[in-house]
């Protein structure tokens, strides 16, 4: 993306993540923030939702590698500067709602009036059409709850739907999708000269992620996707098992006739391979709870380390059930560079996950997020403004 200029008028995580990914891939991404408040994500520390002190990781995550300019686009001077920046950009990226875009004069026609060839990309909660097109939303609600994901993963006995696995779970997936859509639109423009408008939404991302379950519901009229307790798993080799020391492993051995004999033999019970109840896949499906109980007993007699050694010897597809702290030292994560060492603007070291794509074996350039308005003078200087004019704009409050 070297040479591609992106102008971002967006806040929080979902759409800014797309800008962060494009910056990691080499684009020059200018993030426009209000001179006084900045991106509201910066206020999460004072709200108590993230720890006070240390690295502002929820700012770093979506804003990696960008340049920040403090610009009041409601003012005439600020709006004029925004249009001058848009005239030089390849991409305009926003998550402002339709009414906001109209009021601020930053909608598609406004931006294309100064740059007909710009790719205009917008992300929303519910999509550009329909009765809720002008309503905002977050990933834990629109992506997670509304898509059917929360209902599908929540055990009935729990009595309530679980929340998504962590902060920004749907946001980072959706942002990656928008970055891919922008890339495709830039390729289309290069080949045809036509500038496209790219739309993504948290609802579309949620329905995409739940595509298999939604297709099953449509095909078979299933009101709720079946869920099973581990002890009742239909396929004992596609299940999660506890070890002696309270850890868990996940098996996904779909070719059960291939893996059952070797696994039970390695676990010290070779007679289970010849047991008529478990003679083949059909028999094990018929006696699924007995097969599951047998494996649960065998895994429960061993520590996580012992089980891991047995499974790592090629007994079939499996994975340890890890906590986030475990993933940081996972040898495959480390070997492939799936975590990058970064320092924030104050020199505090932290780790950031790069975009999950590599080019010629290399991840993108993962750099820290900017401070609020850190590059205002620099960017305005590139527009040809001298320091006297920049100071005038600062005094008027149009820029930071």
Automatic annotation (TrEMBL):
Q: List each coiled-coil range.
A: none
Tagged with keyword Iron = no
Citing just one GO molecular function, the answer is: transferase activity
User: Could you name the domain of life of the organism this protein comes from?
Assistant: Bacteria
Keywords (A to Z) from UniProt: Transferase
What PANTHER family is this protein classified in?
E-CINNAMOYL-COA:R-PHENYLLACTATE COA TRANSFERASE LARGE SUBUNIT (PTHR48228:SF2), SUCCINYL-COA--D-CITRAMALATE COA-TRANSFERASE (PTHR48228)
- Protein's recorded name: CoA transferase
The species this protein belongs to is Amycolatopsis acidiphila
């Amino acid at each position: 993306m070297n040479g591609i200029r992106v102008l971002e008028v967006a806040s929080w995580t979902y759409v800014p993540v797309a800008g962060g990914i494009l910056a990691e891939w080499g684009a020059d991404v200018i993030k426009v923030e209000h001179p006084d408040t900045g991106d509201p994500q910066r206020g999460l520390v004072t709200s108590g939702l993230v720890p006070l002190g240390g690295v502002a990781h929820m700012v770093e995550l979506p804003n990696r590698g960008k340049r920040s300019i403090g610009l009041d686009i409601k003012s005439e001077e600020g709006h004029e500067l925004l249009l001058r920046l848009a005239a030089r950009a390849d991409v305009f990226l926003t998550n402002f709602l339709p009414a906001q875009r109209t009021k601020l004069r930053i909608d598609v026609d406004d931006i294309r009036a100064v740059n007909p060839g710009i790719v205009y990309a917008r992300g929303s909660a519910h999509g550009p059409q329909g009765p809720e097109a002008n309503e905002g939303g977050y990933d834990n609600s629109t992506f997670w709850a509304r898509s059917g994901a929360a209902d599908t993963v929540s055990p009935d006995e729990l009595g309530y739907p679980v929340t998504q696995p962590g902060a920004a779970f749907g946001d980072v997936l959706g942002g990656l999708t928008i970055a891919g859509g922008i890339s495709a639109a830039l390729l289309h423009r290069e080949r045809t000269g036509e500038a496209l408008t790219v739309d993504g939404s948290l609802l579309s991302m949620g329905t995409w992620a739940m595509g298999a379950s939604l297709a099953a519901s449509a095909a078979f009229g299933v009101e709720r996707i079946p869920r099973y307790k581990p002890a009742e798993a239909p396929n004992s080799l596609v299940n999660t098992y506890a070890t002696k020391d309270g850890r868990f492993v996940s098996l996904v051995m779909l070719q059960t006739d291939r893996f059952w004999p070797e696994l039970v033999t390695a676990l010290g019970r070779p007679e289970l391979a010849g047991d008529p109840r478990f003679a083949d896949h059909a028999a094990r499906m018929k006696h699924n709870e007995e097969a599951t109980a047998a494996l649960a007993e065998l895994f429960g007699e061993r520590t996580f380390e012992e089980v891991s050694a047995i499974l790592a010897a090629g007994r079939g597809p499996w994975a340890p059930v890890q906590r986030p702290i475990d993933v940081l030292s996972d040898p495959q994560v480390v070997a492939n560079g799936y975590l990058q060492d970064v320092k924030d603007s104050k020199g505090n070291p932290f780790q950031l996950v790069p975009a999950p794509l590599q080019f010629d074996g290399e991840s993108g350039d993962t750099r820290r997020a900017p401070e609020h308005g850190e590059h205002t003078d620099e960017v305005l200087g590139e527009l040809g403004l001298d320091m006297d004019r920049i100071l005038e704009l600062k005094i008027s409050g149009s820029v930071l």
